[in-house]
Every structure is written in structure tokens, then in C-alpha cells.
Specification:
mainly alpha; 62% helix; globular
Amino acid sequence: MSTIEKVNFEVPTKDQVSANNQAIFENLKKGVGFVPNLYAAYAYNDTALGDYLTLQNRKSTLKAKEREIINLVVSQVNDCRYCQSAHTALGKMNGFTEEQILEIRSGVASFDAKFDALAKFVKNIVINRGKPATEATQALFEAGYNKANLVDIIMVIGDKIISNFLHGTTQVPIDFPVAPEL
């Protein structure tokens, strides 16, 4: 049995990335106040950071709170501490309480029927690797979501899986207040 050594991924600095990514770093500093370490990890590739930000900021039928529910549930299912932490902070900025965020991460939102159907659907589809139970999909539609929303939900799930996998591989340091364990 061989032991696999951990690959060391340092967070690239502005001077270590392409001119294209340097410009994105500057825009992130202006808009967010800093360059999150996971975003910097995308900059190992000349186009990935810009591509990812385009995907993340695409026009959607979903509200910000709904996108955060998806981000929190997916990050919990995939055990991504970085994304759990980042989206706990963003969830609070979008009006969720600490208690609501913890509940959402578990795949439930008992405080709102529509959010509850969304959280349960997202947990179900991610655990079942893209093949949700019929009941979960029916409950999503019964709660008021439509087919356009479903496509957007799956787009956000894909977006978050990309980040979860990138952090799972790179293990760049978490630069948000660390979310509590469930």
C-alpha cells in the first residue's frame, strides 16, 4: 500500500497570475474588499476565474436567498469547509440567522415552506448524484418552483460543486470566519 502525499497548493498572489487575472483580482478587491483564497486558486488557470465568475453571476430566476440555500446545502453534502464558511457569511448578509443557516445546511428550512422544499430537493439531488427522487421533484414544483427555476437550481448546484471540488483538492486556507460543525 502506498501513501499518497498531499500536493501543496499555495494561494497565488497577484504577481503570480496572468494579466487577465490581475485585472480580475483588482475588481474583486474593489467589489468584495479582498480576493478570496478560493477565487485566487481559480487563477492558476488564465481563464477559469473569469469563466467561474461569469457562471456565478449569470442572470437567474432565483433570488439571492434561494441561491444561498443551494450553496449551503451542496457545501454541506460535499463537506466543503471553505464554502460552508463563505456561504455562512453570505447567508447572514442575505438575512438568514445563524440558526436558520445551520438548519439549511442540514437540508431543511422549517421556517419557510418554499425554502424547505428547495433545501430538501437540493440535498436529495446531490446525494443521489443528479437523480433526485420523484417525490423531491414533485414537492419542489408543489412549493411553487417551475421548470425554469429547476434549470437554475441545477446550474447553481453545478457552480457550487466546482468550488467544492477545487477546495477539496487545493485545501487553500479558509479566509472567512469558520462555520461551526453540524
